[in-house]
Amino acid sequence: MKELTNKVALITGATGGIGRAAASRFAEEGAKLVLADLNEDAGESLAKEIRELGTDAIFVRTDVAKPHDHERLVAAAMINYGRLDAAFNNAGISDGPIPPGFIDYPLELWDRLIAVNLSGVFYAMRAQIPAMLKHGGGSIVNTGSIASQIGFAGVPGYVAAKHGVFGLSKVAAIEYGSKGIRCNVLAPGIIETPMTQAILQNKQAHDMTTGGIPAGRVGRPEEIADMALWLCSARSSYANGACFTVDGGYLAQ
């Protein structure tokens, strides 16, 4: 049997590199999909592609920085499919290729990073957990980063938000583990996606971020999607409150 047969899975940031790869993998494994993103045209196109492959999918335009959008997103899952079994809270933004130093870091950039990358995950879980409890639980996977565990100069907003995602996930795991809900963090290293394109094309940033990867290369979105699938499936049934790093060995040093 496929890993997610008869399961309903929600993915935010669904049209980006990792989100799109996850949508494809989840669909292959039988999940009914609720796709969320700000890009309406790309989201509707992705949902159509998935339906044409024989899997149920809907798209809901979602600004993850707005609590009401998450409530509307989960309501769409319940109205269309009657349940929510898995959520991959993957939407996020970066500081840019080379932001200014700490004391010159723009306040508006700080506010935006925290709103999307941290508050957006809190709003998501706040809406998703009640829906999962109605049917005995589920699995929540939040996209963190190697920056959930270590610091990087020049990106205080991103590092603070990703550290916060790990903390939020631990709290949810503790509070709801006994009620059938697991919450874990998936922490990629540098992955070749549209969001990292500017970094990888900038020589200084590229050398700083990729020079020390033992695998000798950046990761592929499909490699992160496979881990997200595992964490959303029953095969990871005893994994809760943990951070799963997929970084080619970067943090092993």
UniProtKB/TrEMBL annotation:
CDD domains: SDR_c. Keywords: Oxidoreductase. It comes from the Bacteria. Pfam families: adh_short_C2. GO terms for molecular function: oxidoreductase activity. Belongs to the short-chain dehydrogenases/reductases (SDR) family. This is Short-chain dehydrogenase. It comes from Stenotrophobium rhamnosiphilum.
